[in-house]
Amino acid sequence: MKEMYQLTATEVMNHFDSSAQGLTSTQAEERRHTSGWNELTSAKSKPLWKLFLEQFQDFLVIILMIAAVISGLLGDTESAAVILIVITLNAILGTIQTRQAERSLNSLKNLSAPKASVLRNGTVVQLPARELVPGDIVLLEAGDVVPADGRIIECAGLKIDESTLTGESLSSDKIIDAISEQAALGDRRNMVFSGSFITSGRGEIVITDIGMHTEVGKIANLLHNTSAKRTPLQTSLDSFGKKLSIAILIFCGILFGISVLRGESVGNAFLFAVALAVAAIPEALSSIVTIVLSFGTQKMAKEHAIIRKLQAVEGLGSISVICSDKTGTLTLNKMTVEHYYVNGETSPAKDVTSSNLANKLLYFASVLCNDAKIENQSTNFTTPEKQWDSNNKDNKNNSKQITSTDLGNFATSAGNNKNTSSAGIGDPTEIALLQMEHQMHIPISEIQVKYPRIDELPFDSERKMMSTLHTFFQTEHTSDSKEKQLLIVKGAVDVLLQRTDAVWAENGVVPLNMEEQNRIQLQNQKYSEQGLRVLAFAYREVSDITELTFDHEYHLTFLGLIAMMDPPRPESKEAVTTCIKAGIRPVMITGDHILTASAIAKRIGILTPDTKACEGAALDTMSDKELQELVPEISVYARVSPEHKIRIVRAWQTRGHIVAMTGDGVNDAPALKQADIGVAMGGTGTEVAKDAADMVLTNDNFSTIVSAVKNGRNLYQNILHAIEFLLSGNMGAILTVLTASITGLPVPFAPVHLLFINLLTDSLPAIALGLEPHTDDVMKEHPRTATSSILTRSFLKKTGLEGLVIGIVTICSFLTGLQQGNAVLASTCAFGTLCLARLFHGFNCKSEKPVLFTEKMFHNKWLLAAFGLGAALITSVLMFPGLQALFKVQALTMPQLGMVYLYAFLSLPIIQFCKWIKSRGEE
Ligand code: ATP
C-alpha cells in the first residue's frame, strides 16, 4: 500500500472520508472511539496504594519502624502500637498531600495545553489538540506547533522547523504535490509531523496519524524520562535539610551515648534518640514547599497567569526588570483608524469619503493586503458586482484607472448598505482596517473575490511589512486582454519608503522626490507623536509571477498612510507605578515607531524625563559591553527585532538583574528562554512562544505580570514563614531536651510525644501558613536578590530566638510539673505545653510584624482550623483516659491543664513583643 505522502491530497482526503468542510462533530466523536485521544500516553499517575507505600521509604520512617519493633521486643507494646499508628496516620496525610499537589499541577498543565484551529461542521474552531482525530482538517500558521501528523492539502510559503524529529536545523519548505518515490522522513515535504513548528507561511492539513501513532509518538518513550525539575528553593532546602539531618543525627548519637552512660537501658535510650531525631529533622520542608507552590499556582491561574514551570514562582519574587511588548500588553490592542494621509493631505477618518479616487485606492489596498475577517463582511452587493464587471471590460488597458474607477463605483453603489460590524478575527491592525472600510461601505468580500490572491509574503515583525499578489483581471474577462498582476505591500513607513520610487498623485503616478519623501516622513512623525500606529501602503504592477520573493518588494508606488490609535490599557499606568515602587524597572520593547512608542510610554509612566528611547538600529552599532552600560538609561526600545530582545535581556542579566520578558511571536522563543522568566501571551501568542515560556498570560495584560510578581513575592514569604514555623518549633524541642540533659533533670518527653507533635500537629499549621492571604505590602519592598540564600544569618537568628522562647516556656511547664508531682506529670506538662506553644507559634509566623492586636491575627481560616484541630487533638490526649495510657501521660486537673495552656500561650505575647521591638528598630 502507498504511504500518505505518495498519494495526492484528494486521495488522502478520500482515504479519510474527509471533505473541504472538515468532519462533523458526530463523525469526530465516532472516530475518537476507535482512534482514542491525540496525546502521548505519559507515565500514568501512580495508584494511591503505591503512593501510600512510598511514604514508608523515607529514611526517618524506616528508623521509626525499627524503633517500634525494638519497643515491641522490649515489651512496650503500647509504644510500639502508638508509633505505628502515628507513622500510618502520617503516611495517609503524606499521600493526600502528594496527590493533591499532583492534581493541582496537572490541572495547571491542562490549562496551558496546546490548541489547534480545526474545521468542524464547516467552521473553524479552536479545540484542544488532544481532541483531534484522523481526517480532521487543521489550519496552520506561523508560530503554531503541529498538533498531529498530517498531509498538506493547501499551503502558502509554509516552512516548518522539524529539527526535533529530523535533526535538520533548516526549516523544511512544504509542498502539496504527491511524492512518488520512497522518501525519508525529512524528505516527505508534503507531510507535517507532530511537535514540529511553523516558522513561516500558512497551510491546511488533513490529519493522518494522532497520539502514539505519530512519528514523535513512536519515539515518545524517550520523552517520558524527563522528570520534573526541583525548584531552586527546594534544592537549597534539600541541601540544608541534609546538612541539618547529619548534624542532628550526630547530636542524637551523642545523646544516646550520654543516656546509656547515665544508666538508661540501651533500648530506651535508642528510642529516645530516634524520637528526638524525628522531632528535630524538618523532613516535611521540601514537600510543604511543593504543596504551597502548587496551591499558589492555582490562585495565579485564576488571576490569568498560568505557571508552566514551578521554578518560575520563586523567580517571580526576585524580578527586578520587566521587559514588555507594547501592543496588546501595555495597550488594549483594539485599534481604530483615526487618520488617512493621501495625496499630501491628512484627514480624520470620519471625514474621508470614498468619492476621492486616491482614498479609494488606499481602501482597495487595505482590503486586499489583509488576512483578517470581520462579521458581516460578506455583504450582498449585486449592483456593484455588475458595475465592476463592466468597468473591468471598459478599462482593461489601463490598470490604474480601472482600479480606482471600479472602487469608486463599488463605494458609491454600496453606500446604501447599512450593515455595521464590530467583531473580527485576525490581527487587530488588519481588523481595524476592515472595520473602517466596512463603515465606509466598501464591499470587502467582493473585492477580495474579484482580485484573488495568488501568493503572499506574510507579515513578520522582523521585516515589518507584508505583501500580497493578486491577479488583476478575473479570467472570464480576459478573453481579449492580458491578465495582469498587482503586488500590494503594507508595513512600517520607514521600511516601505526605502523601497518606494514613485507616488500616487491625483493625476497619476509621479516619481518620489526628496520633497515628497520628507513630507510623508514629517506626517508620519506627527502621527507617531500622538501615539498613533502608522501603516504605509504601496503597490506595484507586475506580471507572470508564480511565487513571490522578497526581491519583488521593491520599486513600489506609494499610496498613502493610515494612522490608527491603540489606547493604553487603563490599568497599565497603575501597574507601572506599582512596579516602580516595588523596585522593578519596567521597560517597553516594541516593533513600533520610536515616537509612537515614546508617546505611549510617557502616558503610562515608563518613559520618564531621566530615561530615554532607543531604536533597534542604534543597538546594532553598540557592542554588548556598551549596551550593558547603557541599559539603565533606556526605558523604550523601538523598531526592535527579536534578536535585539535577547541582547537587551543579556545586558540586564550581566548587570545582575533578574529579567522577565514578554513575547508572542515564533522568533521571540529564544528571548523568552534567555529571560529568567519568559512570559508568553495566551491570547495572541504563538504555540511556540507559549512552549518556550515559564508563564503564560491568559489576558495578555502587563498588569497581570505585576500581580504575578506580587503573588510570587507573597508565596515566597509564606513559604519562609512555614519554614520559620517548623525550624523554630523543632528548635524549641531540642533546647528543652538539651537543657534537661545538661542539668541532669529527667527526660522531658517520651518518644511518642515527639512523634505526635512532629508527625501529627505540626504539618497542618505549616501548610496553612503557606496559604496565608496575600498582601500588597510585599510590593513596597525591593526585590529579593536571587542569589541570597533563604536561610540567611538573620533568618536563622530569628528562628533560634523563637525556638528559645518555646523551649523556655516548655521547661518552665516541665519544672512546674516536677514541683507539683512526679516525672510523668512533668513530662505530661512539657508535652502539652510544647505542642500547644507550637500551635500558638503559628500566629507568630504569620508576619514579620506583630499581629496580636490586629485583625490580621484571625484572617487565615486555614491556620485557625489547623490550630483548632491541633488543640483538640492534644487536649483529647491529655483528657481522655484511654489515650492517656497510650501516650504515656498523666491525667491533669483543670488548673494543671490551664497552666499548660497558659505557659504555651505565653510564648505568643513574648515573641510578638520581640517582633514589635524589631519592627520599631527597623522603622
Ligand atoms: P509590539 O512588539 O509591542 O507588539 P508592534 O505590534 O507594534 O509592537 P510589530 O507587530 O512587530 O510590533 O509591528 C512592527 C511594525 O510593523 C508596526 O509599527 C507597523 O508599522 C508594521 N505592522 C504591524 N502590523 C502589520 C501588518 N499586519 N501588516 C503590515 N505591517 C504591519
TrEMBL record:
It is a multi-pass membrane protein. Residues 386-397 have a biased composition (Basic and acidic residues). It is found in: Cell membrane. GO terms for molecular function: ATP binding; ATP hydrolysis activity; metal ion binding; P-type calcium transporter activity. Belongs to the cation transport ATPase (P-type) (TC 3.A.3) family. Type IIA subfamily. SUPFAM superfamilies: Calcium ATPase, transduction domain A, Calcium ATPase, transmembrane domain M, HAD-like, Metal cation-transporting ATPase, ATP-binding domain N. The chain crosses the membrane at residues 56-74, 80-96, 244-263, 269-293, 799-817, 823-841, 862-880, 900-917. It comes from Eubacterium ramulus. This is P-type Ca(2+) transporter. GO terms for biological process: export from cell. Keywords: ATP-binding, Calcium, Calcium transport, Cell membrane, Ion transport, Membrane, Metal-binding, Nucleotide-binding, Translocase, Transmembrane, Transmembrane helix, Transport. Residues 3-76 form the Cation-transporting P-type ATPase N-terminal domain. PANTHER family: CALCIUM-TRANSPORTING ATPASE. Residues 380-424 are annotated as: Disordered. Pfam families: Cation_ATPase (PF13246), Cation_ATPase_C (PF00689), Cation_ATPase_N (PF00690), E1-E2_ATPase (PF00122), Hydrolase_3 (PF08282). It catalyses: Ca(2+)(in) + ATP + H2O = Ca(2+)(out) + ADP + phosphate + H(+). NCBIfam families: ATPase_P-type (TIGR01494). The keyword Acyltransferase does not apply. Its EC number is 7.2.2.10. Residues 401-423 have a biased composition (Polar residues). It comes from the Bacteria. GO terms for cellular component: plasma membrane.
